[in-house]
Amino acid sequence: MTKDTMLQELLNLEAHLKKITHGLRQIDDTWSDHFDPADPDDMYLCSTFAKVEDKLSAVRRLIQGIGARVIAQGTLIKNADGQYAIGNTGIMLTAGSAVEVLFRSSEQDAEWIESGVELCGDEYALTGFPRLDLEGLTVRVKQYPSE
């Protein structure tokens, strides 16, 4: 199997996952119409549906990220207010912003890593990397498809 074939398979899978996750969400929104709270097996199935929907939604987002359009990319610059802008794009990062950060393990080895921005005290930080200085990092922001 080739990389391009696998990419197409993933894109096809995402369409199927969309249908499944939407169906699971609809059932969850009206769970009392579908499940008997007095039946432990039914409630097990209800909670399992919710867990499956959560995990499949995460897989969908990963697949969507492959083809999502990059709307801003550049070096983070800290402004006087303590917020970070992506170069001269005019895009400011705030708590809750989703970003991809370019991490380099060597001169020739680099990878975009999904992360997010959070507020730690009065300073912004990357999710999972609270001590990493944001100034000067290369990041990008993608536009994901709407539901």
Description:
With about 150 residues, the protein is an alpha+beta fold. The chain has three helices and seven strands, in the order αααβββββββ. Strands 3-2-1-7-4-5-6 form a seven-stranded antiparallel sheet, with no helix packed on it. α1 (about 5-30) packs across α3. The two termini are about 30 Å apart. The mean pLDDT is about 95.
Q: Can you give me a brief rundown of this structure?
A:
This protein is α+β, with helices and mostly antiparallel strands and 147 residues long. It has helices at residues 3-29, 31-34, 40-67, and strands at residues 69-78, 84-86, 92-93, 98-104, 110-120, 123-126, 138-143.
How is the secondary structure organized here?
Elements: H1 3-29, H2 31-34, H3 40-67, E1 69-78, E2 84-86, E3 92-93, E4 98-104, E5 110-120, E6 123-126, E7 138-143
Antiparallel strand pairs: 1-2, 1-7, 2-3, 4-5, 4-7, 5-6
Helix pairs in contact: 1-3
